[in-house]
Amino acid sequence: MTDTATELESLDTDREVLLSVKGLKKHFPIMKGVFRKQVGAVRAVDGVDFVIYKGETLGLVGESGSGKSTTGRVILQLDNATEGSVTFDGIELTQISSKDMRKLRRRMQMIFQDPHACLNPRMTVASIIGEPLVENSDMSKAERRSRIEELLQSVGLDPTHANRYPHEFSGGQRQRIGIARAIALHPEFIVCDEPIAALDVSIQAQVVNLLKKLQKELDLTYFFISHDLSMVRHIADRVAVMYLGHIVELAPVDVVYDDPKHPYTQALNSAVPVPDPLIEETRQRVILEGDVPSPANPPPGCVFSTRCPIATERCSSEVPEWRSLGNEHWVACHFAE
To answer: Which of 26, 120, 12, 146 is nearest to 79 (CA)?
Structure first.
């Protein structure tokens, strides 16, 4: 997306932009030989542009390996960007020092995918949730204890269980602990990196409802990463669709699900089961042929051209323009109208 296109998008609404991403790239070098010479690069994120408005939830969906989690990590500077800019509340994150970034961390947090792997098994729940309070505040021990109990209550856990260890909790409860840790410092922005992927289906809705409740109570802004389109529909205000390191469509949630314009978005939607058997029997599915190309060797032109059911010669040679269809609907396809 050009700077002009980004400006046009921001003019689509009067809402305040909290985070702006322009031309973001993250390439991982491929090294070979005795002298570890670089022979190529994995283009995990290959030039993405979007804004996130204050108080909203922007969903990011796509297949595994499309670059969703890498995008979230680069936004929070857990990985350094290869190219591009990430601006949070007017601050260019790719240019500031690690010391200044450390100060900003209290305003930007992350909820990780695996609640078991991201919690230290040797620490009690009180220590896990209290760790950011120790590092980033001058609370007394009694004040920290009171805050920890308050956080546990806010995520639906019993404060009397604060001295237990992570293995004594279920997967859904462990994710609630991770959420409590993420909101401990009153952040404004949270990257939710597939927070429900490792949970049972019966628990997923509970966690999503908790996130929505906390967003309303604490005025949070979410970047919600997931491969589950049906769940994203319940929490997101707008949805970005990612394929092979590129965002191919971005629109309000109802538009993405009811009137998608990009063939890849249409294929993803057709794979989501519909609870009505009559509709399920009659609706048409879009079956994609072939495998996802390697991000180390993406196809020329449109990255989706090798699997697109409507691709022409133009698609394999010319990169589609990222253009507006109006009403905050953006798409990168030659034939989307």
So the answer is: 26
- Is there a contact between 266 and 286 (Cβ–Cβ < 8 Å)? yes
Contact partners, residue 160, CB within 8 Å, separation at least 6? none
Q: Where are the beta strands (DSSP E) in the chain?
A: 17-32, 37-53, 57-61, 83-88, 91-92, 108-111, 189-193, 221-225, 238-243, 246-252, 322-326, 329-332
Strand, helix or coil for residue 107: helix
Burial class of residue 115 (count of CB atoms within 10 Å of its CB; 0-12, 13-18, 19+)? buried
How far apart, in Å, are the Cα atoms of 158 and each of 58, 154, 236?
31, 10, 29
Quote the DSSP letter at residue 314: G
pLDDT of residue 276: 67
* Torsion (CA) 303, 306, 308, 309 in degrees, nearest 10: 160
Question: 246-252 and 329-332: which strand pairing?
Answer: antiparallel
| Residue-wise pLDDT tens digits, 188-231 | 999 999 998 888 888 899 999 999 999 999 999 999 999 888 88
Residue 329 to residue 254: CA distance in whole angstroms: 11
CA–CA gap between residue 23 and residue 68 (Å, rounded): 15
pLDDT at 4: 41
Q: Which residues in the chain land under pLDDT 50?
A: 1-2, 4-5, 8-10
CA 326 to chain centre: 24
Q: For residues 166 and 150, what is the distance between their CA atoms, to the nearest angstrom?
A: 18
The DSSP 8-state label assigned to residue 241 in this structure reads E
Question: Is residue 21 within 8 Å of 51, Cβ to Cβ?
Answer: yes
Structure confidence at residue 280 (pLDDT):
64
**pLDDT at site 139:** 87
Q: What is the pLDDT of residue 118?
A: 87
Q: Which two tokens stand for residue 234?
A: 């319940």
